[in-house]
Design brief:
Elements lengths: L1 H18 L5 E9 L10 E4 L11 H8 L3 E5 L10 H13 L2 E4 L2 H4 L4 H10 L3 E2 L3 E7 L2 E7 L8 H13 L8 E7 L13 E5 L7 E2 L3 E2 L21 E5 L2 E5 L17 E9 L3
Parallel strand pairs: 1-14, 2-3, 3-4, 4-5, 7-8, 8-9, 9-13
Antiparallel strand pairs: 2-14, 6-7, 10-11, 12-13
Helix pairs in contact: 2-3
Length: 277
């Protein structure tokens, strides 16, 4: 009996240790499309979100090893009104690695100094997209990179109206278009809007993950926009809806009361591949 108890305790300790493993992880994806120009074959994107001003070590080093062509940060790199210095310090390293593109998350846009944050990011050399698009060109061919600001609403109707206003500024284009948008749970509002690839975060991978099943719960800010916090529809990984693909990073930081469980902090690397028609 005593031996059984010891074995059970040891097993439980191992499960807890694995569940609370907070080592940085890099996940790789390959995205193919007939719309991707041949000149962008092998184009690499590092995706990082939901830092929440965390001081996780090794982020810049891990991204540097990936040797990306661009770095994309779709929101919540800061957190409410806590000092944004940890993110700014990271950002100054990221822009030395590759062009870095940012859009806001809910915890960024809730800041009383949000406009200052935008200016500081741009002064550091980042491209901060606010319901606008830019182009990336290689050998005369180009793809589009767009960013939608967080809707900054808690009601469903408010979110819907904010999204509609943002999308009116980004009419559909013929070229391959990547969208940075924080709230992965709002994918259904973005399907059939002309975006080929959406890079997102917000869901923290489900916060608590059940091995073999997926995310158990998402941040409580979703409770007002008709997406339940238990077993969220889009929590982390790769999703395909009609002609739109979305990749959701589990993010880095954690400002929730409960810890991330079986949910290591994550950076994603996305490699573009042209597809022959």
């Amino acid at each position: 009996m005593k031996k059984t108890t010891v074995l059970l305790a040891a097993g439980a300790a191992l499960v807890v240790a694995k569940g609370l493993d907070n080592r940085l992880e890099v996940t790789h994806y390959t995205v193919s499309s007939e719309k991707i120009p041949q000149e962008f074959d092998g184009f690499k994107i590092s995706l990082i979100a939901d830092l929440h001003c965390d001081k996780t070590a090794g982020i810049a080093e891990a991204i540097r090893e990936e040797n990306p062509d661009i770095i994309c940060c779709p929101g919540d790199m800061t957190h409410d009104d806590v000092p944004y210095a940890p993110f700014l310090n990271l950002l100054k390293n990221l822009v030395k690695i590759a062009p870095t593109y940012i859009t806001s998350g809910n915890h960024d846009i809730w800041r009383t100094d949000y406009e200052e944050l935008v200016s500081v990011c741009r002064d550091a050399g980042a491209i901060f997209l606010r319901n606008e698009r830019t182009h990336i060109t290689k050998n005369g061919k180009r793809i589009i990179l767009s960013g939608i600001e967080d809707p900054n609403c808690t009601s469903y109707n408010g979110i819907r109206d904010a999204m509609s206003a943002a999308l009116n500024k980004l009419p559909e284009q013929e070229e391959y278009e990547i969208l940075l948008f924080h709230r992965a749970n709002l994918l259904d509002m973005l399907v059939s809007k002309g975006f080929d690839l959406i890079l997102s975060g917000h869901m923290h991978g489900g916060q608590i993950r059940i091995p073999g099943i997926g995310g158990l719960m998402c941040p409580k800010t979703n409770i007002h926009d008709k997406t339940g916090i238990i077993f969220p529809k889009y929590f982390g990984g790769e999703y395909q809806r009609e002609n739109t693909k979305m990749i959701v990073t589990r993010g880095i930081g954690n400002k929730a009361i409960i810890p991330r469980l079986f949910n290591r902090p994550e950076i994603c690397t996305i490699t573009l591949k042209p597809k022959k028609s």
